[in-house]
Predict the structure of Paraoxonase.
Amino acid sequence: VENRLKASREVESVDLPNCHLIKGIAFVFNIFHCFGKGLKFPGLHSFAPDKPGGILMMDLKEEKPRARELRISRGFDLASFNPHGISTFIDNDDTVYLFVVNHPEFKNTVEIFKFEEAENSLLHLKTVKHELLPSVNDITAVGPAHFYATNDHYFSDPFLKYLETYLNLHWANVVYYSPNEVKVVAEGFDSANGINISPDNKYIYVADVLAHEIHVLEKHPNMNLTQLKVLELDTLVDNLSIDPSSGDIWVGCHPNGQKLFVYDPNNPPSSEVLRIQNILSEKPTVTTVYANNGSVLQGSSVASVYDGKLLIGTLYHRALYCEL
């Protein structure tokens, strides 16, 4: 377990010059740079346990981008909203769909919204629940009601989850969901976490957080996946973002997982951002773009890039915005 959590690892700082902190934001995701705020997760420290979650948007095309909360349509249960992974899909008619992994009262659903640009609001369309989605972590949308999702555990019961991790069963998986068909398309992960898709829609990337790996899977016309390669890293890889212009993968990482699960304000969780270029080649280039021992940024979980601007989200209470 110690090796899976990288419990003894300390980080050397790698700083970026033009950065400032944004408070009140946790997870950061691509396209519109929507974030979930306020994820509450069993076993993880929460700075605002009583506040419901929400969705914020940040337009990185603006001169001085700022986060704005999106209104959510009436009839959706905001009080129990506990957002986790987020993905967007843009249809042929330019309709934007937002998919959000939700853990209301620690259950597992995927909420599908339509983004109403004129009102800066989200119209709730559908709640997805399925027996093949027992412990959803992240999603990547591939249609208006179609997505790939990672289950970070096989079980939904907290004690069985703990046992599954402790026994190192490797029962986590990836599921394809559509209104007509739901199926497991990849399995054997220690703890499948972040998931994303290449700009050409041919490859799916999956982060296995406790195995310190990124899996490259080829997508087939029937939506099945076959594994092409595995990239091994020396850190706990959380969420994956894709730079749409280059296809580079930007990874939010936890250098030391032990500090995440045993939170100590005097020895806080550190942060690390990796950039992976040419992942399909024989020797992908892996660069540490940012690293901090927790003095500035704790528990980095995702890094998103757009047009020379970098947004690093965390499991906690703040994000870091940098101009590269």
User: Anything to note?
Assistant: The chain is about 5% helix and 45% strand. Helices lie at 2-5, 158-166, 258-261.
